[in-house]
């Protein structure tokens, strides 16, 4: 740990921030999430400035005696459309990246798997799974589960004539 890092750590501990007790790996992870968000925000600012400038430069401003109902003959609709599509895509991608990285920074998520776990816990998925696991299994489901377990264990070649008969609803 460098001198500035230890100074920062002691300052965080002095003011009783929870981050002062965090591991170095956690602090690095949070810094990386912050850098990703800030980079996406910088690209968004750049893209919006670029879109503004390209819109202003393509604006048709007629001189005093020119008509404003028809663009000049040197105007290229294809180039204008290509620039519009490119600029719109750049803006959409940068804003989306900023939103995604910001959400991941807020939720402390770095991978898709962590995102799945976080969403599952936020939406009450673990409690629902526990409730479902406590419920008794019906006869048909138990038979299907036992059959699948036998297949996974490699017991599909062994024919057991003393095995229980499948439920009537599965025949």
From TrEMBL:
<protein>
    <recommendedName>
        <fullName>Altered inheritance of mitochondria protein 11</fullName>
    </recommendedName>
</protein>
<comment type="similarity">
    <text>Belongs to the AIM11 family.</text>
</comment>
<dbReference type="GO" id="GO:0005739">
    <property type="term" value="C:mitochondrion"/>
</dbReference>
<keyword id="KW-0472">Membrane</keyword>
<feature type="transmembrane region" description="Helical">
    <location>
        <begin position="34"/>
        <end position="52"/>
    </location>
</feature>
<keyword id="KW-1133">Transmembrane helix</keyword>
<dbReference type="InterPro" id="IPR038814">
    <property type="entry name" value="AIM11"/>
</dbReference>
<dbReference type="GO" id="GO:0016020">
    <property type="term" value="C:membrane"/>
</dbReference>
<keyword id="KW-0812">Transmembrane</keyword>
<feature type="transmembrane region" description="Helical">
    <location>
        <begin position="81"/>
        <end position="107"/>
    </location>
</feature>
């Amino acid at each position: 740990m460098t001198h500035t890092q230890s100074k920062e750590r002691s300052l965080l501990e002095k003011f009783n921030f929870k981050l002062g007790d965090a591991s170095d790996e956690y602090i690095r992870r949070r810094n990386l999430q912050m850098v990703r968000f800030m980079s996406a925000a910088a690209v968004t600012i750049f893209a919006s400035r670029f879109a503004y400038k390209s819109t202003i430069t393509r604006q048709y401003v007629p001189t005093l005696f020119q008509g404003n109902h028809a663009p000049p003959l040197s105007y290229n609709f294809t180039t204008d459309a290509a620039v519009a599509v490119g600029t719109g895509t750049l803006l959409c991608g940068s804003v989306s990246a900023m939103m995604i990285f910001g959400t991941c920074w807020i939720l402390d998520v770095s991978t898709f798997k962590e995102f799945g776990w976080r969403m599952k816990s936020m939406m009450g998925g673990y409690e629902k799974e526990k409730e479902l696991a406590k419920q008794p299994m019906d006869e048909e489901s138990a038979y299907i589960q036992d059959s699948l377990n036998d297949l996974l264990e490699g017991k599909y070649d062994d024919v057991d004539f003393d095995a229980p008969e499948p439920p009537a609803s599965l025949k």
